[in-house]
Design goal:
This protein is about 35% helix and about 20% strand. It has about 200 residues and is an alpha/beta fold.
């Protein structure tokens, strides 16, 4: 897939405010500071599309970006950011779960995982929740350039193995790096394949 146009569409604070469109949506989510904005900018060839920041937890709305006038890329707030108040955290969780469970246009959720770390409980709980609710998702490992290829592969293998205990069929997974553009073609091809099947 060649991305010719990628434009900001709208920010929403609830699923009800999301655009009234029938276009397929691909949502991106992960723990704060997982490199989500950088990945979105790398995928779309637009360094300024999603706002990157050295301060984690900047995304607090559901952000829609229109790609090639054919589908929406949706940037969801990160989860597990400790510096938020309990009330703020609960509000974000409601926004995220509302979108994921009720947005019919969402055809796939990409869950971002920092490749450098072992499986975190918060990620595993989120994956369990996706499974319990029958949400179609794929795992995207980020920051692969920070490790040697062997170490990156071994971390991914260990992570996927930890899922095998609870999952009969493992979700698709991708290894990416925003700085080297690793995984970009595979991820866009996956989206393209789903779009063609709809």
């Amino acid at each position: 897939m060649t991305i010719k146009t990628a434009t900001f569409s709208v920010s929403s604070s609830t699923v009800e405010q999301c655009p009234p469109t029938t276009l397929p949506e691909y949502a991106f989510i992960g723990r704060s500071n997982v490199g989500k904005s950088s990945l979105i900018n790398m995928l779309t060839n637009n360094g300024h599309l999603a706002k990157t920041s050295s301060t984690p937890g900047k995304t607090v709305l559901i952000n829609h970006f229109l790609i090639n006038s054919q589908w929406h890329l949706v940037d969801l707030p990160g989860y597990g950011f400790a510096k938020r108040s309990k009330k703020e955290q609960e509000k974000l969780e409601q926004m995220i779960s509302g979108y994921i469970l009720r947005r019919e246009q969402m055809v796939n959720l990409f869950l971002l995982i920092d490749i450098r770390h072992e499986a975190q409980r918060i990620d595993m709980e989120f994956i369990e929740w996706l499974g319990e609710n029958g949400i179609p998702f794929a795992i995207v490992f980020t920051k692969a350039d920070k490790l040697s290829r062997a170490k990156a592969n071994s971390n991914v293998t260990a992570f996927m193995k930890s899922l095998e205990e609870r999952w009969e069929e493992l979700p698709p997974h991708f290894i990416t790096s925003s700085s080297t553009r690793q995984g970009r073609d595979e991820l866009l091809q996956y989206i393209d394949d789903i779009n063609r099947s709809l």
